[in-house]
Amino acid sequence: MIWVLRRMASLAGAVLLAVAGLAGSQLLAFMQQYAQRLAGHLDEARRQLVQAQDGSGVFAGVAVDVRQTVAEAMMLRVEGLTAAMDGLDQAGPWQRPFVFIQNLDWSIAAGTASDFTPALPLDTTSLVYGATAIIVVWSVLQLAGAALRRRRA
Hints:
mainly alpha, 5 helices, elongated
């Protein structure tokens, strides 16, 4: 019976490692699609800021004090989106996932996830991300297994 449980645990571990490798290899594709969506949000925020400042477009006929309030909010949005975009653009391949997570806009990420199209990544960075995910998950499984073995003993 113990032999069967060990084999099932081994199979579950292999499946988990495969899923981790696939997810890790898709990270670069997700970040690229997120960056495209982020750039679109940034362009729209800049356009709305200009309209709020000069009273054109949807802000035609809106009171100056209301436009100023909206312009201040839009300025903060533009600054935040610009910082996130610049961070992604300037980060190297090893820093990029951390910069991505640090500057993540959850609404943009949710939209990206809903429209995400998986890629067949064959570039070096995606393969390294996939291998890194496998190594991290394998290490966690090994540590968890060692902790369980010590607990039984």
